[in-house]
Each structure stands twice: as structure tokens, then as C-alpha cells.
Design goal:
Helix 2 runs antiparallel to helix 7, helix 5 packs across helix 7 and helix 8 packs antiparallel against helix 10. A five-stranded antiparallel sheet has the order 1-2-3-4-5, sandwiched between helices. Strands 6-7-8-9-10 form a five-stranded antiparallel sheet, covered by helices on one side. The two termini are about 35 Å apart. The model has no long low-confidence stretch (mean pLDDT about 90). It contains ten helices and 13 strands. The chain is of the alpha+beta class. A hairpin with a 6-residue loop joins strand 2 and strand 3.
Length: about 325
């Protein structure tokens, strides 16, 4: 796990000064806001709120370690860049099988809000979504509210409400919007830059997967790691694909009965359900506007039904539909 000292040491002098000013300001704002809360609500909020500079009093004695573990888990690629983490609002989830811990919630950085919407399941990881910061013509407050609304749009509240009440979460999200506004206001005065409009969606498949938080679910054919090459070889064999029909992306899972799910090639969508023969739909027979997902089914045209992994959440299925439409309509490059 990255420590505060390690992270700060890797920053340039200018970025280090920005981090110190912003993290101190956010910590002070958090403490000031909590002072006005009645005692029971204050402690519940504190249990969700982890600024980079931990307050002197916190219900968790290891609050600083929790923050940096959240930064590692939600935004592991920040080290060595000019983007830095500032605030984590959320909780740690324990996988009942692996016993590993992962952060669930919202990580505010100087450039974005990183969101893990729900705990990862046994068979599928829940990759973070990324909501970039911007300060548009409507003003800082309106921009901060729009960013927060986008961040919470797909959040799986059934898990969060097991941690604390909806009322406490509502107060925490008001705090997130306020802290986003603080970053938008202060960062430019410290020599940092903030986009002046909401960024357009990415136009390359890898970046779009990162935006949507599908990086551990949809595997692009450009991933040539030994693990992915082995998976694609097995999929090609099970789906009976010829050597001249490479897989462009796959949405699959594996069981003791073998892999199942769907893959896209340059010629068709191919899929296989457990214990079933593979089925195919030529690209020419796919209607992007008609694509929809219903639980474990991916419908790509009337009567053309394919299989999706069972671990997908409703929001993940919706994002997969969106992704396939953009790719098949030519709005995404591989």
C-alpha cells in the first residue's frame, strides 16, 4: 500500500504545494462541517469520510491508512502524475471468499471522482468509473452538482445502506459536492488547470472501458497479456472460430463447465451458454439501435439472442449495451 510520505515524495514541487494546500483545506472544511452535526449523525458521517489529511479525532484510528488504501484501490495509476487524491467517501468491503478488502464509494482527486459502485463479486471484479472534473459556464456550484450527480448515477445503494442510513449518505454526498466545488475554485489559483466544459466521451475502446468501469469485464482484443491470450485461445476453440477471425472484444466468464458469454469479431457476434452449442449473428444482421440486455441475455436484433455472464449488474449490462452501440456505429476505435 502507498503511504502518504511515498506519494508526496513522488510529486513535483509545484504539485506537492497544490496537494498540501488542497488537502489541508478539505480536511478543515470536513472538520468544520462535522462540528455542526449532532453527535450520533456526526460519528456516522465520520465513518464514511476520509480526507487525505486525517483529522485529529476520527472513529477509526487507522483513518490515514484507509484513505491511502482507497486511493490505491480506486486510482492506482496516479503515482508520478500531476493528479493527486484528496478525499474518500465510502467504506471497505471484505470479499467473503478471498477475505481481501476493497474500497467502495467515491475518491475525489484533483482531476476526477473515481467511483466503485458496488463490491466485486466472486466471479467478476467491479472496476471504478471515472467522472472528470470540469468548471463550465454555468458556474462552479452547478458544475460540482453535475459532477456529483454523474458520480452517483449508477451507485448500488443496496450495499451502501447496509453500512449506514440513506439520510447519512445524503449528507455525505452533499459534502462531496461541496468538496468538488472547493477543488474547482482553488486549483486554478494554485497554478493547476481545470477543464472548462464536460469532456466528451472517449473515442477509443480502452479509454471508454476505463470511463465506464468495464475494464475488468469487457476484454479488448488488444490485450495481449499471457492470461488474456490463453483465454482467447480457449474461447476461439469453444466458439469454433477460424484462425482468420480474431476476437475484438469478449464479455465472458468461466466455470467448471467451460467459458460462456459473448465475443465480437470483425464478422459477427458469437456466444455460448453453459452446456449449449455456440450461436452467431453476422455483423450485417445486428441492429445497433435494437441492442438491449435482459439479465443473462443480449439481444442484438429481433430473434437474435446471445448470452451474458450472470454476475453482471443492471448498470453494467446497460453500459455494455451502450458500448456495443458506439462500437458498431463506428463511434469507437479499437
Amino acid at each position: 500500500m502507498t503511504t502518504q510520505a511515498e506519494f508526496i515524495a513522488a510529486l513535483t514541487p509545484q504539485t506537492r504545494a497544490q496537494w498540501i494546500t488542497l488537502s489541508t483545506a478539505i480536511s478543515a472544511e470536513v472538520e468544520g462541517a462535522l462540528e455542526g452535526e449532532p453527535a450520533p449523525a456526526r460519528e456516522d458521517l465520520e465513518r464514511l469520510t476520509f480526507p487525505a489529511v486525517a483529522p485529529a479525532q476520527h472513529p477509526f484510528s487507522d483513518a490515514e491508512e484507509i484513505f491511502w488504501a482507497a486511493a490505491d484501490g480506486l486510482a492506482p495509476d496516479l503515482a508520478g502524475t500531476d493528479e493527486f487524491p484528496l478525499l474518500f467517501l465510502g467504506f471497505s468491503s471484505v470479499n467473503r471468499i478471498t477475505r481481501g478488502r476493497e474500497p467502495v464509494g467515491f475518491l475525489l482527486t484533483s482531476g476526477a471522482v473515481y467511483v466503485r459502485d458496488s463490491p466485486s463479486g466472486l466471479f467478476g471484479a467491479q472496476a471504478p468509473r471515472i467522472v472528470p472534473l470540469f468548471s463550465g459556464p454555468e458556474g462552479i456550484a452547478a458544475s460540482a452538482q453535475a459532477i456529483t450527480e454523474q458520480a452517483i448515477a449508477k451507485f448500488e445503494w443496496k450495499w451502501a445502506h447496509q453500512v449506514t442510513s440513506a439520510e447519512v449518505w445524503s449528507a455525505a454526498l452533499q459534502r462531496l459536492s461541496s468538496m468538488v466545488a472547493l477543488v474547482l475554485a482553488l486549483l486554478p489559483t494554485l497554478g493547476g488547470s481545470v477543464a472548462t466544459e464536460a469532456p466528451a466521451s472517449a473515442t477509443s475502446l480502452p479509454e471508454r472501458l476505463r470511463e465506464l468501469g468495464l475494464g475488468d469485464i469487457v476484454v479488448p482484443g488488444s490485450d495481449e497479456s499471457p492470461k488474456r491470450l490463453k483465454q482467447r485461445a480457449k474461447l476461439s476453440k469453444v466458439l469454433k472460430l477460424s484462425a482468420d477471425e480474431p476476437i475484438l472484444l469478449s464479455i465472458t466468464d468461466s466455470t467448471l463447465a467451460g467459458p460462456y458469454g459473448s465475443v465480437l469479431t470483425g464478422a459477427a457476434i458469437h456466444s455460448r451458454d453453459l452446456m449449449e452449442d455456440p450461436v452467431s449473428t453476422p455483423r450485417a444482421g445486428i441492429d445497433p439501435a435494437a441492442i438491449r440486455a435482459e439479465k443473462g441475455r443480449l439481444i442484438v436484433a429481433p430473434g437474435e439472442v446471445h448470452t451474458l455472464p450472470s454476475f453482471l449488474t443492471e448498470s453494467q449490462r446497460e453500459d455494455i449495451v451502450r458500448l456495443l452501440r458506439e462500437l458498431l456505429e463506428g463511434r469507437l476505435s479499437l
